Amino acid sequence: MAKIGLKHFRYAILTENNGAATYGEVKTPAKAVSCNVTITNNNAKLYADDVLVESDTSFQSGTATVGIDNDDLETMADFLGHTYSAANGIKRNANDIAPYVGFGRVVVRITNGMRNYKVEFLRKVKFSEPSEENSTKGEAVEFGTTTIEGTIATLENGDWSDAQSFPTEAAAITYLEGLFTPQTTTTQNSTP
After folding, report:
1. Domain assignment present for 185
2. Which residues contact 47 (CB under 8 A, 6 or more apart)?
3. How many structural domains comprise the chain?
């Protein structure tokens, strides 16, 4: 399996209420440039009678670092909890609170000579204010993009991620957008 591309970022604002995860309108933030997900696992070991008898390497949290081609003001307001209007643009306030969002993407792969599309979906992410770096044009044009970082958490039922592969891009997009439908499961899903 070789990863050969990244496409179709999608997100929606998350609301959790009594074990039910509900997502708002599914939106596209911008075109995908990069997505790096770093997971932090628990690392506990129990020794007894001079040997390791139990260990825990379960999911603890994670970080999603997302590169997009356009830092659209409305999207940034959604991600960061700021106020936005078409007439006035974005207004940032120190008391703004970023909402949790569901965030997904499609990874293009080649497996056994065949192209396929893997959906990766993070159920609960809270993005933080990005740093900005701008520079003047020099002798050659250099493109700049926006990178935003988010903390990955679990839903109340313990779910934090979904993944599935598809033979067609259209099927992958349909599946990804369908993951934003209400989730009311109360059992813990052990498959990341």
Report:
1. no
2. 53
3. 1
The encoded tokens of residue 4 equal: 């050969």
CA distance 121 to 139: 41
What are the distances in angstroms from CA 162 to CA 80, 118, 171? 24, 10, 15
* Cα–Cα nearest to 98, from 11, 1, 156, 184: 11
Q: What are phi and psi of 79, to 5 degrees?
A: -65, -35
pLDDT in tens, 64-90: 999 999 888 999 999 999 999 999 999
Q: Which of 125, 111, 156, 172 is nearest to 29 (CA)?
A: 125
61 within 8 A of 153, measured Cβ to Cβ: yes
Residue 172 pLDDT > 70, yes or no? yes
CA–CA dist 154, 159 (Å, integer): 5
Domain of residue 9 covers: 2-42+62-134+143-178
Tell me, yes or no, whether 115 lies in a domain.
yes
Question: pTM here?
Answer: 0.84
